[in-house]
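Comment thread on ticket #2218

A.B. wrote:
> Attaching the input chain for the structure job we discussed in standup.
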Amino acid sequence: STALEISKGIVPLSSEADVIEAFGTPNDRNDASSGEYSRLSYQEADTGFGVSFYCYKEEPQYNSISIRRYAFGENTAVTNATRPAYLSRYTAPTALGNDLYSGTICVDGDLYRLPAPLDAFLNNGWTISSGMEYVVADGAEDITISRNGKKLELAIGNIAAYQTTPANCFVFRIEEYASSNGPIVELPGGLKLGMTQADVEANIPTDMEKSQSTYSATYSAYDYEGRDFSLSLYVDLQENALASITVKNLPEISDDSVW
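C.D. wrote:
> Ran it. Output below, let me know if you need it in another format.
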């Protein structure tokens, strides 16, 4: 469908070349290891506007277009670099375990339990490569971090009563795709990107929802009892491989939270 059109004439049927010609070199790029698609991301740090294109290679070429919020008006709040006290109460897990719904995740050998302070990642050698320079009070932002040429997509939140830097926020969602520049991501039970569909189904709980089409299968789980939890596993059936993992865990967090 071409009912959607954004600036410079870009529509879902526009090619990757069309997107780059219209908007230039993207701030961030991820190429699927299968070669099926590339994700091009454009962000404006001073406005909070961002748009991502999933450019598929096979004919007919088409795009999935994702547009992030635009922050109208000038932000006049002062950024306070004080680290919120509740972040210091976080304790990293010592084992991955088998509970797929625990929020525990292993990224290139390092263990985290969501929500986790962003500085837990930064202290392990990751650096912020794209995203806003601040997060408003009680706000959230999408950012990209990188280490040794590998990139990781995160959503971070700030429950402090003041605007602060991303380093003083917590990570509540991780989204990773099988690509040439991605880290090794593992979930409880041994789930890893690249696993076959049969291996995925052998390692997930039976209560996960399954949606399958000709080219893909998606396994999903949700929990809204006292938290906002979701897990999505996307299997590329043409490659017979787990192609993306998205995990979100956002319980109630406060200044006196014990993580």
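A.B. wrote:
> Thanks. Noting for the ticket: The first helix runs from residue 16 to 23.
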